[in-house]
Amino acid sequence: MNMKKEWFSTSNIFSAVLIIFAAAMVISPQVKGWTIQNLMKIGLFQPRIDKIQNDNKAAEPLPNILFKDDSGDIVDLTSLKGKVVFINFWATWCPPCIAEMPSINALHDRFGRNENVVFLMVDVDGNFEKSNNFMKQHQYNLNVVSSVSAIPTFFMQGTIPTTVILDKDGGIVFRQEGAADYSNPKLVNMITEMIR
Questions:
Q1: Contact 165, 171 (CB under 8 A)
Q2: Domain range list for the chain
Q3: Is residue 99 within 8 Å of residue 179, measured between CB atoms?
Q4: 49-194 under CATH 3.40.30.10, yes or no
Q5: pLDDT digits (tens, 9 = 90+) for 132-180
Q6: For 21-79, how does the pLDDT look when each residue is reduced to its tens digit (9 = 90+)?
């Protein structure tokens, strides 16, 4: 009887719950993504707005990068000059990508109808069926593309998620590796200023 009391103590139950949660975070990208999303809600994983400067722009003109949508239509990055371009490199199996997706969708809901803003959600796996199913399942209004040409390292160095924002001149004004909360008011204000 005494052994039962010790086995079902509050401390043991709490430890068991923590172990199960830690195992779920290792096994399930959705659980890890959910955890990161909730940490975003308390102020963690904010984009590094303070590092946005005009001197962060690419020194040379942007290379001609081509993207393809699930219909096979080609999007030429240089044809988007004159628009603010939000590019996110992501994958369905990536927990930080899953975590930041609601905030990207909220940003898209805010600016997606503006003809001066373009969102390119680049699925690094190029699996349109899987990525489009992910978007439908979560009711995101984000269109998926894949890269047809090589991605320069000043855009993405292999880390996902990576987000790049280009100004109307095609200069990189923002680059973030890792998850971030893109519903951040400072980022929203930055895009608002850029489209004026």
A1: no
A2: 49-194
A3: yes
A4: yes
A5: 999 999 999 999 999 998 888 888 888 899 999 999 998 899 999 999 9
A6: 566 656 666 766 666 666 656 566 666 665 554 444 444 566 789 999 989 999 999 99
